[in-house]
Amino acid sequence: MKDKIKALKDHLMTGVSYMIPAVVVGGIFIALSLATGTASDKGMVITNEFMKNINFIGVAGFTMMIPILAGFIAYSIAGKPALIPGMIGGYLANTPLEGSGVKAGFLGALILGLAAGFLVKWIKTWKVPTMLRPVMPIFVIPILSSMIIGLGYIYLLASPISWMMTGLTDTLTGMTDSSLVLLAIILGCMIAFDMGGPINKVACMFAFGLMAEGVYTVMGIIAIAICTPPLGMGLATLLNKRKYSEQERESGKAALAMGMIGITEGAIPFAAGDPVRVLPSIMLGSATGAVIGALAKVTDHAPHGGPIVLPVVGERLWYVVAIIVGTLVTALMVNLLKKNIPSDTESTP
């Protein structure tokens, strides 16, 4: 059993190691461009034409991030024939489906990457006629496995995700008249849980809807919770370098930059590589910061988060305090849970 768990972790870390350069490029470019923008009721607005192009490049890096993660998880399991099916699964998971708008995010990409890898590994065991063997890895396997993974996601996984999103939205709406602290805990955990995935998006859209009604306290909670996962993981890599590989430490620097401009996805490489330790840590950190924001009645008048929106935040001192405390909770908890890595650990697979 331990061998199977280790092998699974190795597959995940392979995907993470190939994803990190895309995270770094995308995150740094987006951070640079947004840092020159201004906060408005429509989010961060970039007016400089050159910085718009820098942002465009950064978005390209971020767009590739999740497909690369899923693709190389599959590649680690079953080799080259699994690469494209895995990437297609990752792309589908990170792209809203037409009509429903369903998006599974990075957790969906992890599942589809693993599914693609093991599916291809199984197909490779099939006994086929000798004349078909040369075209199996370049034609039959990629087409067949991509179709199975793609249609399986669209017809089997997308609908339950959509139902879940609707149910969560209805639940949150019913809580607006109850305890703001309890709502803050739930929203903080939702924001950190899948970092840009469906649960995160439900929390964000819920806050955006209340902003349209003139309620800005919930967006204040969200703005704090959005930035603590990447800031916390970035800080964690600085506090104890022995627990992180060289690549993870580099990713930590990018995570700090992304946290400053409210990009939760900066924590994805860490969560993908070690979800058991990282997810509870970032959820607790986000929830802690969110509760402080709720108690202090912090408001945010822009549909964005992180220190970058400070000019449009009410109760700014408490906003900063909440971010700092949530960041520290995340960093200290994850470093308490993680073990030191061997000194000879390779930074690439």
Automatic annotation (TrEMBL):
Listed GO biological process terms: phosphoenolpyruvate-dependent sugar phosphotransferase system
Annotated membrane topology: Multi-pass membrane protein
Residues in PTS EIIC type-2 domain copies: 8-347
Single GO MF annotation: protein-phosphocysteine-sugar phosphotransferase activity
Transmembrane intervals: 12-34, 54-78, 104-123, 135-158, 179-196, 216-239, 251-272, 317-337
GO-annotated cellular components: plasma membrane
Keyword annotations of the record: Cell membrane, Membrane, Phosphotransferase system, Sugar transport, Transmembrane, Transmembrane helix, Transport
Principal location listed in the UniProt entry: membrane
Record keyword Ribosomal protein present: no
Location of the protein in the cell: Cell inner membrane
One Pfam family from the record: PTS_EIIC
Keyword Ribonucleoprotein carried by entry: no
Protein name: PTS system fructose-like transporter subunit EIIC
Organism ancestry: Bacteria, Bacillati, Bacillota, Bacilli, Bacillales
